[in-house]
Amino acid sequence: MTDPNAPAGENGEPESKAPAPDQTAEDEKKGNVPYSRFKEVLDKGKAAEETLKTVVEELVNGLPEEFRPLVPNLTPAAKVAWIRQARDAGLFNKSAQAAPELDTKRPGGKAPADLSKLNATQLLSAGYNK
Predict the structure, then answer these.
(1) Separation of alpha carbons 76 and 83, rounded Å
(2) Which residues, including other chains, have CB under 8 Å from residue 15's CB and lie 6 or more apart?
(3) Is residue 51 part of a domain?
(4) Model confidence over 96-120: pLDDT tens digits?
């Protein structure tokens, strides 16, 4: 049974409330946002998010293949920030990880001196000379 106080349409069903032109002006006075404006802003936000996802995919594809699994599963904006920070820190540099740091005090081709035949005073003297 329907509510006798409810406004009825021609078929006895409740009328659907469609915003009247005067209603939108009244909503704007109250501070409400019209639906068309809300939808426009929402569509712009979705388009910006899709663009950001494309940028993230390009950044990840630009990384060397062996480093791609290291990228964490974050939001697109956080992922861009993480990749930039990792790149600035040198995480994705192949040359820095391939060659260990060389010892500059001991050249590679020179054998160490034989200290087995030196007495204690000579050993101390040799140690302090370095």
Answers:
(1) 11
(2) 7, 8, 9
(3) yes
(4) 445 556 666 666 666 777 888 889 9
